[in-house]
Amino acid sequence: MTDTPVEESLVQLVRCYHRYAAREGDVETLSLQELKALLEDNTPRFLGSLGRREPYFISELFRAADKDKDNQLSFDEFLYVLGRLLRDCHLQYHRRLCAHCCAQRSLY
């Protein structure tokens, strides 16, 4: 049996995390530079469409996720980052859906 799209996405997220975590220092955590590379390499259009290209956005996201303040993100802390990105994606989805529905009903 093959993985469902969601199962495949989950596996890809774990692989992506470990691919970037292995770049420097502790291979089980992400540094700020590793997180920045991961997001810029893997979500450039998404970050851009949300207006999240500002230099401080990733730094502030990292700071908020780093619950134990060790300047590294464990996988559990990385889940906070994913949650924020998913929330933004969900909001963007609704904005596009609303714009589409409004355009169909000539509300613009």
UniProtKB/TrEMBL annotation:
Domain EF-hand residues, every copy: 60-88
Sequence intervals crossing the membrane: none
Any GO MF annotation of the entry: calcium ion binding
Pfam families assigned to the protein according to its UniProt record, in alphabetical order: EF-hand_1, S_100
A GO BP entry: endothelial cell migration
Cellular component annotations (GO), alphabetically ordered: cytoplasm; extracellular exosome
InterPro entries in the record: EF-hand-dom_pair (IPR011992), EF_Hand_1_Ca_BS (IPR018247), EF_hand_dom (IPR002048), S-100_dom (IPR034325), S100_Ca-bd_sub (IPR013787)
UniProtKB keywords: Calcium, Metal-binding
Superkingdom: Eukaryota
Database matches in SUPFAM superfamilies: EF-hand
UniProt xrefs under PANTHER family: PROTEIN S100-A15A, S100 CALCIUM-BINDING PROTEIN
Protein name per the record: Protein S100-A15A
Species annotation: Pteropus alecto
